[in-house]
Amino acid sequence: MSKISIHWFRNDLRVQDNPSLQFAAQNGSVTPIFILDTVNNTEKEFKLGEAGAWWLHHSLHSLNKSLDNKINCFTGDPIKIIGELISNNQVESFSWNRCYSPWEIKRDTLIKSLLKEKNINVKTFNGTLLWEPWEILKDDNTPYRVFSPFYRKGCLKKHSGPRKVINLDDVICSERLDSSKDVDSLNLLPKNSWKDKFKKYWNVGEKAAMEKYIHFRNNGLNGYKEGRNFPSQENVSVLSPHLHFGEISPHQIWYNDKSNCPEKDVGHFHSELGWREFSYYLIYHFPFMCSENLNKRFDKFPWSANKDFLKAWQMGNTGYPIVDAGMRQLWETGYMHNRVRMIVASFLVKNLLIDWRIGLEWFNDCLCDADLANNTASWQWTAGSGADAAPYFRIFNPILQGKKFDPEGLYTKKFVPELKNFPAKHLFAPWEANDSVFKDAGIEYGKDYPKPIVSIEESRDIALKAYDQIKG
Q1: What proportion of the chain, given as a percentage, has pLDDT over 70?
Q2: Distance separating alpha carbons of residues 69 and 32, to the nearest angstrom
Q3: What class does CATH assign to 3-125?
Q4: Topology, domain 296-468
Q5: What region, left, alpha or beta, does residue 75 occupy, with left being phi > 0 and alpha being psi -120 to 50 degrees?
Q6: In the chain, where are the structural domains located?
Q7: Residue-level pLDDT at 169
Q8: What residues are labeled active site?
Q9: For residue range 333-389, what is the model confidence (pLDDT) as tens digits?
Q10: How far apart are CA 280 and CA 290, in angstroms?
């Protein structure tokens, strides 16, 4: 029986810039494995959502094609599966790129101990983040809780730049193990038909990720700093699902030539990668925040449990066009523009007074890029309960936000087509229009498009009074 070198694919579904895969390949052929963990991620906030499962299915198929259909797939408990692999095979080395969520750290620590006990050469690498979260600390060796000093002082000044990109030649894979199955055996595709339309909007896989980045660099990075806030413009990369599943690494993006782009836009784009780092940094140092308020004062916040409000928000029927456009974009495409994410999140937690965890759960199920770190940190930021959070009294007014960032209504009308003939002047506050405006637009108000489920002014006042109860 020949000895094998195993690389365990996780959130690194690519061949290039894959340090663990490089390590496994240095002595010859590689035995690549993927394990769908159905045992250790027991909490609902850790569960793979349906949109993410759809993406993972297609990403694994793309990766498998790159590896000559040699990937070995398993379902169950990785601790047990890996134990059986090393018992039934002559394993020379075992490697993976690190994950950073609390449950994965706990699981991987047990697996690493198991492999060391069996005298197997086990190595782990950073294939996901630009900087390791334990390396970035304040002068008193405590973690940062504010983004700007974390990024500017902790990351850019105190530490050298991110590691360089690792380019690999063709990887030679060993024949598949007898005990393994194929990608389809993982049964990742959701049974609900709503996800079938995603294929209209996405190309999945390592090649598609790099193509999308190059398109953004050439067409969207110039003007990014300002343009990224306008959902109808091309100044967003839409790389988040590719980054989440590791089809492209942040290192590849960081070092790719951007010399033809303005420095202010490149710097701001890099700082957005920094926000991604900060999200992972927070859940590493404060793992409880994945399900609990980082700011414990919010444990006493009087959240509402209005199911009708929640359903209207989920389906994009709140009566506020920019909110409804965002929620319908999510349902239609598995994605939402970042500025609009902030608007819809603020509306849920501050105008409807619904717990941020409920919004997080919906995003986790519907977003192709559903990422525990980004999702958690962003929702807590909006709610005011997180690190470097927006002050609770900063409530995104969906009327003003729509007018400012979608002035012609191109984005809103695309996803709320019943308002396509409505004049931009009244688009974000349709209740202010007279009957003739609705008639000209062919709309029966309250039937073809809903009236607001809450008053912005009244709901804001209620939210601020609720906050007054806990801020002491």
Answers
A1: 99
A2: 10
A3: alpha beta
A4: DNA Cyclobutane Dipyrimidine Photolyase, subunit A; domain 3 (1.10.579)
A5: beta
A6: 3-125, 129-164+204-285, 296-468
A7: 82
A8: 272, 275, 303, 338, 356, 379
A9: 999 999 999 999 999 999 999 999 999 999 999 999 999 999 999 999 999 999 876
A10: 11
